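Handout, section B. The chain below has 426 residues.
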Amino acid sequence: MNRDNIQFYALYLTRFAGGYGFITLITLLSEYIDALDPTSVSVFGLFTVGAGFVVGMYTAGFTGAQTVAVVPLAWAGDRFDKGDVLVGVLALGTVAYALFVPVDSSLGFIGVRALQGVAVTGAGLMSLALVGELSAVGSRANNIGKANASAFAASILGSLLAGALYDAFGFTPIFAIIVVIMAIATVTCWLFLDDDDTRIRGFPFTDLALNRRILTIATFRTQYAVAVTLVRTWVPIYAGVSAATGGLAYASLAVSFTVVAEKFTNMLFQPRTGTLSDRYGRALFVFVGGGAYGLVALAVPFSPAIGAALDLPGAFPILGPLSPAFLPLVGLSGLLGVADSFREPASMALFADEGTDSGGVASSFGIRELLWRPGSVIGPLLGGWLMYEIGMEWVFFVGGATALTGVLAFLAVLVYDFGPSALTEW
């Protein structure tokens, strides 16, 4: 095995570790909502924020910290050794996951989620920047697809184990496993990544922020961030929270199946769709994947009606009694993964292409993250408000509609700036 392959595998392991920790928290979010029982909170006696805002902060604390961390981490990756930065944020992630064990309040949970957000952002930026930098143009989306597939494989394993272990033992063993995996990834990268000799002086964000292709895809990505944050976060919440708050009240293991379905199909398809993107271009895959995601998201609240119309079973071996909505919800979650498998490697490869050509691949991925952050912060706060004030189904209606407006805006700007054939030429 040559040295480059060893480095790719080390980076794939990093993606595995990050995906495992991230999805565990997503899967158990409904359990934390029930365990910590968020209520209205008085802020310095000046005003009161409602339970919906506190629930939104369970995710917004994570995404807000990611937003703050993007620019300094991406700058450090281009200015110094990306491998050293990666090892540092992996070590930080190891500490963060250990701190979830003693958490016993909403404030503490939000704080540790913020620390996790910094670690996840740094690991994602540096690992993808290194994969993009080590890859030739003709294999870049395929290698990124493989890296993402590693994260999705971890997501599948993490979701299943999180649900099963929580039902049997509670939170502590779950986080012990994550800490071990993160520690192994940290040591592996420290031992096997070559020195990164690229050094970009100045502030590459400035030039890349005016890149025409990046500006064009920004019209899609800023809106799509709201869609994915709402849908990806609220599918397991919808499955797991009580019927009184609009959910289906499934046990943790059943909730994990709804998460696994999306990750499995995404993992299965991404290396192949990445290869097709390398061959046929990026824009078409972004457009088709984003549009399909929006259409499927709109159908999620109709899971109970679909199950009833098809007379599907409401009980299953091991899982026990659920409802006829279970199989449609799992199926729709799987379709969300198929749709996103078209969009994600093509989008990532586009940013890697532009960053490599302009001499700032970490900053290019940093801009990609920054475009995502406003929507990913606003999305969960909006979702918490919609869930408590209007109805759970409106989380998915707003998420699906935002994905569709994003792809239509992207198509309009793409055609206006680059011509009608640009959709198949990028």
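Note. The mean pLDDT is 85. Compare this with the example in section A.
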